[in-house]
Design the sequence.
């Protein structure tokens, strides 16, 4: 299932706005991908709400995850 051109255009506009709002994030992603995410890499996500509630999770990258990350990387480059 792929995106139609209108959806892709909306996604790209949203991504441009996101990167404009958070310019350090794409630089962070480039640094991480330049070092190379490999099978066994652990990615941790930590979210803190304005009220101070914290959610944290992590995942260990598998070979199938690497395929998905490559597809995402191609679509946002």
Sequence:
């Amino acid at each position: 299932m792929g995106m139609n051109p209108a959806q892709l255009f909306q996604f790209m506009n949203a991504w441009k706005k996101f990167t404009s709002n958070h310019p350090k994030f794409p630089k962070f992603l480039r640094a991480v991908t330049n070092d190379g995410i490999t099978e066994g890499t652990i990615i941790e996500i930590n979210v803190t709400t304005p009220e101070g509630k914290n959610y944290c999770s992590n995942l260990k990258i598998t070979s199938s995850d690497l395929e998905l990350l490559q597809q995402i990387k191609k679509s946002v480059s």
Remarks:
- Residues 10-76 form one domain.
- The chain has a mean pLDDT of 87.
